[in-house]
Amino acid sequence: MSHPAIVKDNVAVITGGASGIGLAAAAAYARAGMKVCIADVDRERLADAATKLSSVTSATNVMTFAVDVSSAESVRELEHAVAAQFGGTDLLMNNAGIQPGSTLFGEPDNWQRVIAVNMWGIINGSRIFAPSMIARGKTGLIINTGSKQGITTPPGDPAYNVSKAGVKAITEALQHELRNTRDCRVTAHLLIPGFVFTGLTAKGRTEKPAGAWTPEQTVDFMLARLEVGDFYILCPDNDVPRALDEKRMQWAAGDIVENRPPLSR
Ligand code: NAI
User: Fold this and answer.
1) Keywords of this protein's UniProt record, alphabetized (predicted)?
2) Which partner from 66, 189, 250, 254 sits 20 to 30 angstroms from 86, CA to CA?
3) Which tens digits make up the pLDDT trace of 50-102?
């Protein structure tokens, strides 16, 4: 783990941090000596997650916060609470996400929920945390969790696809604005996981399907590729049918696509 933001006593905030990829990331940051705030809408999961983290770090290095990322007010409270308890944020992982399913002709409720959580969550996190992270003057890192579905837009579940295509667009806007901010040492990465066995994808299964990754594998893959600069981290395909690969973006080359070259600064 070589990224200068991931060092002892720095502070990481992880939304959707009470389970799955977010919790695995929180555990990894805590193992590196960071103070971690896991922020999640699910209070029960938060309590369980804090117990799990107590096996990797001391209780004083862990903070939990009940947040609804779709609400700017709630995210603002989170930012203030982290500043009050830990002094500020060095790493923000905008990771909370839902996938209740949708069709274009179906009820609009899921559309609104998915866009509110998956897209507005990233907008709120970026807008509210970035200014204070920049003001710290330290190396800072924002990681947004996207999805291959935001790039390949397969048929089925269009609301999720749109929300994750939005995550990519918002991350690019964030990278652009950070690069154009004077004395800014904060950069942004887009994490694009493969098929990861979590509550989001379990759909009643208790056993990890062959080919799926664990959240820990995904986080290890990401950590090994974090560098200073603006990057996409695209995890290897494991479940995406070959035909969809043909729709890859031009920056995705080969079977395993790693960091996009740094954008010129
Ligand atoms: P998960 O369901 O284990 O974790 C998501 C967490 O987000 C949950 O703890 C949930 O309570 C929380 N959350 C939901 N709505 C929230 C809200 N309004 N405010 C705050 N927290 C909220 O799922 P997983 O798989 O760990 O998902 C993490 C991210 O990874 C999501 O953005 C998901 O879309 C993305 N992803 C997951 C993939 C997979 O195969 N599992 C593949 C590609 C992307």
Assistant:
1) Oxidoreductase
2) 189
3) 999 999 999 999 999 999 999 999 999 999 999 999 999 999 999 999 999 99
The closest of 84, 162, 67, 172 to 121, measured between CA atoms, is 67
The pTM of this model reads 0.92
Spell out where 16-72 has E strands: 35-40, 62-66
**Is residue 160 annotated as part of the catalytic site, yes or no?**
yes
CA 34 – CA 54 distance, rounded (Å): 13
**Would residue 113 count as lying in a domain?**
yes
User: pLDDT for 193-243, tens place per residue?
Assistant: 988 999 999 988 999 988 899 999 999 989 988 888 887 887 876 544 433
**How far does the centroid of ligand 1 lie from the alpha carbon of residue 161, in Å?**
14
Ligand 1, CB within 6 Å, residue ranges: 15-16, 18-22, 40-42, 45, 67-70, 95-99, 117, 145, 147, 193, 195-196, 198-201, 215
Structure tokens at 262: 């740094």
